[in-house]
Write the structure tokens for this entry.
Amino acid sequence: DTAVSQTPKYLVTQMGNDKSIKCEQNLGHDTMYWYKQDSKKFLKIMFSYNNKELIINETVPNRFSPKSPDKAHLNLHINSLELGDSAVYFCASSLGPGPYEQYFGPGTRLTVT
Amino acid sequence: AQKVTQAQTEISVVEKEDVTLDCVYETRDTTYYLFWYKQPPSGELVFLIRRNSFDEQNEISGRYSWNFQKSTSSFNFTITASQVVDSAVYFCALSEASAGGTSYGKLTFGQGTILTVHP
């Protein structure tokens, strides 16, 4: 059973398009996250939700909008995609909003052409 | 603000060698947690260890060991008798633990160290 899953695994799209990435966790965790890993492998948090409520919102363009329909799901919608959005996006979950270990999904490699 | 520095960008060793990955951190919080994650070539991030700031005991898990030294703000990771399967990018991360703080529960990652173990 996959603990944290993401779809799709690969996403290739053109500039200006809108796309979504879905994430689901079956660990019963309350908190979920989105991270961006750039081409130099640097990982940075984007958002975090605790029980469907946004608790961390880093300096991210407002073209990125997370949505959490329930505590097991956290989706990421990106409007008007730009070349610089090309990266690997990781979803993660943890027991709660504190400094717990976070379990990561397999990542979604987004390529904007 | 919190910061994690992994000064070694890349390390290359031959199988069975011991290797230490360095991690230095900065934080104003007195209570915090340190983590190590492994990212093998397949791309997923694998949790290895979580250690709180009040526990300076070294930790050993099989061929892996961690040395936490608060005096030097370091949390180094040693792999003993390295194997080809240890080849991966290793990330050190920090999370502040004061509820209500701006960095509470937020993982700040280092730049990662690419470890290549040659047969």
Remarks:
- Chain B has a mean pLDDT of 93.
- The CA atoms of residues 6 and 43 of chain B lie 19 Å apart.
